Structure prediction request, 272 residues.
Amino acid sequence: MFQLFKRWLRAREDKPFPEEWRPYIEKNVPMVSALPAEDRAELEKLCMAFLDDKHFEGAGGFEITDEVKVTIAAQACMLLIHRDTEVYPELETIIVYPSTFVSKQTKREGYVVVEEDSARLGESWSRGIVVLAWDSVRSGTANMHDGHNVVLHEFAHQLDAEDGDMDGAPDLGARSRYTAWAQVLGPEFTDLVEKADAGRGSDIDKYGATNPAEFFAVVTESFFEKPRQLRMKHPELYDQLVDFYKQDPEKLLATAPVIQNVGDKPKKKKKK
Prediction:
């Protein structure tokens, strides 16, 4: 199936990436500037496939524009570069709110099921839907070094669900890879849970202690936005993510030009 998809993707080479879309990526997704030319070309093809196949809906009065679609697609497709995969085959619709939205959350307390409202920045459903708050999308891209990116987070959930379960272990292929994955991510997740329960600090966002699925999504954010810190403090975890994503962001950022956050002013050279 993947080979059919690759042939379809190659067949799109005669359809150029729209020039009017590139400024949206340059302005809103600064991490793309670190990619070598070959990877940028692959990202553009993936974005075009994504935008051809997925449906966007505005909610809460929000208007869907090309800038909205391209900004989200570019970040979602960052997770697919180099990987033997289709473009989120189970995903059908991306719903975008202007800002934080309220979602019904159901939880069980003993024998009682409680339903309550919860303010959300994003959601990823196993039934082919991702929901995002546009202001959170923009704040996540504006600072690409803080380890928080709602698009990377929610689309990591989509990858996690591709094997049928959103459980913190995406489709890894060979059975031996699941063993290595569990031997590394299992103890890392347990350590984060223990720190969260004890009120101790952690360099990994404590939201990742919610469950293994959230842990995978949270460390995906860190992998792409704070790779040096993640590799230094969690080398085995970092290596597992390199193996899965087929990318090495720490190495890439070490050799790429300095990437400034959106809105940063270029530093003035000191006069001698």
Observations:
- Residues 104-121, 265-272 have pLDDT under 50 and may be disordered.
